[in-house]
UniProtKB/TrEMBL annotation:
This is Glutathione S-transferase rho. InterPro entries: Glutathione-S-Trfase_C-like, Glutathione-S-Trfase_C_sf, Glutathione_S-Trfase, Glutathione_S-Trfase_N, GST_C, Thioredoxin-like_sf. Residues 3-85 form the GST N-terminal domain. It holds the Pfam family GST_N_2. Belongs to the GST superfamily. It comes from Amphiprion percula. PROSITE patterns: GST_CTER (PS50405), GST_NTER (PS50404). Residues 92-217 form the GST C-terminal domain.
């Protein structure tokens, strides 16, 4: 099964990491994979464009099915391999509703993170405006305050005690934030969530290789 799958990915990319975690959770090790370099713009290579005309990674092929969006790939894998590995959609309507709400709500968090990262790394320093930096910072701070509140009301995972699809999609965002210097003291509930899951087998096995070589960065220290 896994031999019919191909994943082109980049280290530290939350969408790429989601699919990797998902494949581990469903016991689909042994798939074809290739680590690409963002710095060398390998995600714009013909190899990627042949599968993903957007020239983005993750680029994921499962048999004849192409699923380049991380949410789509994770849903597909859960539905196709329901009886294999860990079950990631709970039976309880309450837990299921909470799971769906949180996983799609995480799209907003991702967007606010990206706005800060892109502004810091893509816009030349002399062209940056303090007002835009402050606006982006305030938007992410307000967003994280919401998630602090959510996690204070749950057990170890987003939808209760069980690790679900919501955690597969959400955890890489939180790990990204802490790697880039988010304060544990200012975000205790997020820190507790992060620390409770970072050693989970599927997460540990797919930890971004570049993060093991590069020290934590300070982009998010002032959030």
């Amino acid at each position: 099964m896994a031999k019919d799958m191909t994943l082109l990915w980049g280290s530290g990319s939350p969408p790429c990491w989601r699919i990797q975690i998902m494949l581990e959770e469903k016991q689909l090790q042994g798939y074809n994979q290739k680590l690409l370099s963002f710095e060398k713009k390998e995600h714009k290579s013909q190899e990627v464009l042949d599968i993903n005309p957007r020239g983005q990674i993750p680029t994921f092929k499962c048999g004849n099915h192409i699923l380049n969006e991380s949410y789509a790939a994770c849903f597909f894998l859960e539905n196709q391999y329901k009886s294999q590995g860990n079950k990631l959609i709970p039976d309880s309507p309450d837990a299921q509703a909470l799971m769906y709400q949180r996983m799609f709500e995480a799209v907003t968090l991702h967007q606010k993170m990206v706005e800060i990262v892109l502004y810091n790394y893509k816009v030349p320093e002399e062209e940056r405006h303090d007002s835009a930096v402050q606006r982006n910072k305030e938007a992410l701070t307000a967003e994280l305050k919401l998630w602090e509140g959510y996690l204070n009301k749950t057990d170890c995972c987003l939808a209760g005690k069980e690790f679900t699809l919501a955690d597969v999609l959400f955890f890489p965002l939180i790990a990204f934030l802490f790697h880039f210097g988010l304060s544990s003291e200012s975000h205790p509930a997020l820190a507790k969530y992060y620390n409770s899951l970072k050693d989970r087998t599927s997460i540990k096995a797919t930890w971004p290789p570049t993060w093991q070589k590069i020290p934590e960065l300070g982009t998010m220290k002032t959030i």
